[in-house]
Specification:
By secondary structure, the protein is an alpha+beta fold. It is built from eleven helices and twelve strands. Helix content is 34%, strand content 27%. Helix 1 runs parallel beside helix 2, helix 5 crosses helix 8 and helix 6 runs antiparallel to helix 7. Bound molecules: cytidine-5'-monophosphate. The site of cytidine-5'-monophosphate has 11 residues, from strand 2 and helix 5.
Length: 325
């Protein structure tokens, strides 16, 4: 079979519905229990045949993403080649739509997509489990970015148990100006705990939240949303308190900072309510994105074998099939 010349993968962002942060481990990471949900905001990553691994990033936030060896997608492709014992290259191209440094695993999503794309491009034939293992070395959220749907993450977030979700919920996402660096937010969380004398307990999954997700009970889910990193994110970006208060005033079923922030996430009753919330947020000076989740994980949307090649690029997008954006 002839090798494809390029592969394009579409990969969703994640939000955290619960993030329980426990004590710091010996390796410097925090023990966490988190409920991940994949949502319908996607990046697209294309890998095409080349001698070396390089990256180009396009989109309105492109200048906020490194286009060198520190890019997580480049690191993913290089680690994959190393683990597979090959010396192939790939020209990576990222259409960046997921908010950068926003607590939505945008970098992890690109790394996951790069692993899948290069696995195909180089005909390595690695299975999902092997990619997940490589992904875990690249970042705590990369395994979930490979999986999609809904899952509980334990350890540093990389050990996953898929969850049932009875329905697709409507979410309103409010990105903030500027990003927050994950290590800085965890460090701030530690500082707050030190100042207040809080000794963190081993983190536990919130069974009420998991049951609400399984039953499709939006009201119960809204009440259960919780993030231990939220006080730290609020201290580093005090304007988020106003965003969260606006969500409460506008009648969101629940709201929280996603992951290490600063993106704030609000749950709507249904898509009608979600559209009204998005409009109200935008009118209140907080431009908002309407999304749905859970959605499935990364998909190959173009394997470069279609006639006319570029004519097909992007025509089968996950986002289009979901009727979003
Ligand atoms: O795993 P990842 O590279 O995404 O983590 C980025 C940083 O976030 C880590 O270096 C660490 O400072 C912090 N972190 C943590 N505990 C976790 C996950 C991340 O302290 N469970």
């Amino acid at each position: 079979m002839e090798h494809p010349r390029y592969i394009t993968v579409e990969v969703p962002a994640k939000i955290n519905l619960q993030l329980a942060v426990g004590p710091v481990r010996e390796d410097g990471y925090h023990e966490v229990v988190t409920v991940y949900l994949a949502v319908s905001i996607v990046d697209r990553v294309r890998a095409s045949t080349a001698d070396a691994v390089t990256v180009e990033v396009v989109g309105p936030q492109a200048d906020r993403v490194p286009a060198d060896g520190s890019n997580l997608a480049v690191r993913a492709a290089r680690l994959l080649a190393e683990r597979a014992g090959v010396s192939y290259g790939a020209r990576l191209w990222i259409d960046k739509r997921i908010p950068v440094a926003g607590g939505m695993a945008g970098g992890s999503a690109d790394a996951a997509a790069a692993l899948i794309a290069c696995n195909h491009l180089w005909d390595l034939g690695l299975g999902k489990d092997e990619l997940v293992e490589i992904g875990a070395e690249l970042g705590s959220d990369v395994p979930f970015s490979l999986l999609g749907g809904a899952a509980v993450g334990t350890g540093r977030g990389e050990r996953l148990r898929p969850l049932d979700a009875e329905r697709v919920f409507t979410w309103v996402l409010v990105p903030a100006d500027g990003g927050l660096a994950t290590p800085a937010v965890y460090a701030e969380c530690d500082r707050i705990r030190e100042e207040t004398g809080v000794v963190p307990a081993p983190p536990r999954a919130d069974e009420d939240l998991i049951a609400a997700l399984a039953k499709g009970d939006a009201h119960a889910l809204g009440r259960a949303l919780a993030n231990d990193l939220e006080p730290a994110a609020l201290r580093l970006n005090p304007s988020l308190a106003r965003t969260l208060a606006t969500g409460r005033e506008l009648g969101a079923l629940g709201g929280l900072v996603s992951g290490s922030g600063p993106t704030c996430v609000f749950l709507a009753e249904d898509s009608h309510h979600g559209a009204a919330l998005s409009e109200a947020f935008t009118a209140a000076g907080h431009p908002a994105i309407h999304a749905r989740g859970p959605v499935h994980g990364p998909v190959v949307i173009d394997d470069g074998r279609y006639p006319g090649d570029d004519r097909w690029f992007g025509s089968m997008a996950l986002a289009d099939s979901l009727g979003e954006r």
